[in-house]
Amino acid sequence: MPACWLRRCLxxxxxxxxxxxxxxxxxxxxxxxxxxxxxxxxxxLPMGRAPFAFAVANSEDLTSxxxxxxxxxxxxxxxxxxxxQELWGFEEDSINEQDESILKADWYASSFxxxxxxxxxxxxxxxxxxxxxxxxxxxxxxxxxxxxSSACWERLVEALSVxxxxxxxxxxxHESVSVFRRCLLDKVQFAGVEAQIWQGGDLTMDSHTDxxxxxxxxxxxxxxxxxxxxxxxxxxxxxxxxxxxxxxxxRSGDEISVWNPQAYDREELWDIExxxxxxxxxxxxxxxxxxxxxxHESSPTFALQCRFVFANLSAAKLVNGQxxxxxxxxxxxxxxxxxxxxxxxxxxxxTVQEVCAAAAQISVANQLRKARxxxxxxxxxxxxxxxxxxxxxxxxxxxxxxxxxxxxxFSKLGTRFGFPSRSAxxxxxxxxxxxxxxxxxxxxxxxxxxxxxxxxRGR
Length: 459
Prior knowledge:
Blueprint: H1 2-21, E1 31-32, E2 40-45, E3 48-52, E4 55-58, H2 60-67, H3 78-82, H4 84-88, E5 91-94, E6 101-108, E7 117-122, E8 127-133, H5 136-148, H6 150-166, H7 171-185, E9 192-198, E10 203-204, E11 217-223, E12 225-231, H8 244-247, E13 269-275, E14 278-282, E15 289-293, E16 301-307, H9 313-319, H10 325-343, H11 352-391, H12 397-417, H13 424-430, H14 439-442
Parallel strand pairs: 6-8
Antiparallel strand pairs: 1-4, 2-3, 4-14, 5-6, 6-9, 7-8, 9-16, 10-15, 11-14, 11-16, 12-13, 12-15
Helix pairs in contact: 1-11, 5-11, 6-7, 6-10, 7-10, 11-12, 12-13
Organism: Symbiodinium necroappetens
Keywords: Signal
Protein name: Fe2OG dioxygenase domain-containing protein
């Protein structure tokens, strides 16, 4: 029976979760990159430089677990490389005509959407594109991370709610705050994932600032090595270093580039080494930065950039690319809330065991969705077939009664399995059911579905 199968699935899921959670080791906490200055300032906005916090953590065990996924895209080899585009949506992103290309893919990592692929806002194209579902372990990690640091997100939602109330007469600020508060309530922070693979030699990416999806950004290095260069200032109204181009009134094009030696004093730049197991959480919307990839002999460089996901066109158009005082106010709340959470040890990575438990839950949920979908499709095909036969006069009164009785059986079965039953009320009024056994009630719609497998893979 479906109810028995459902109970068995849930019990197995609970057993797996408890087994994975037994003897859970201590979590790794995020720390301030610069403990003396928890809040730094980045690019110039109308009412001063944009504030941001910068937190770092390290866990090689966790990245090894994410990397060693036989069903994922990060296993090296010719066979794996040939499937990168077909299965995971990787495409070459050319830096310029002279340099080699870096492979990039756009994924979504919200395990509750239940679709093979969805259209989400991709900041580098400033457009909505079809995004693949992230690999199971990546989805599980981000779900577990949101859960492990739930106190941090609650603090941030509360602070944004206060700002939203204070901005009731400022429509631009009120709407901007509402976009990010809603994203946090919907648990889609870090659900927009840009996966990157670099297999060439040395590569220096252009200096830039990110869009609004990166007001809360988690960077993960799964393998290889890269360096993140960040420009930062100590004060809200700090001045840029004087340059000849500024004195002449000409824009040089790279006058605030982090690779321009004349743009910053040495103490205004951080070179943050990123190797396997490195995590950072910050707001690249707020500061100029660039990435340098280095040739790594042992493995390619695998990196994940996890940001807010916008599934709403109006929300994306409202905030993305905006460099207004309203966005500075939102950044200010995020920066100070993150700094307080870091000080309170609320921002922390999940353990491998917690990610394993989350993966088991997602796998069971995926199989239940498939079972429900298959059963619903079979039912409506059968109902349509019977309706066409009734209209054609092929059935007598007894056949019509049998069809109605079968509908009642499905309604009872669907209700026990948790399916919505729109026909149950009509069927009960039409026929008083008689205790019997039918083929419909004997068959388990989920027969053949087990708990094995690695969950959905984007196709």
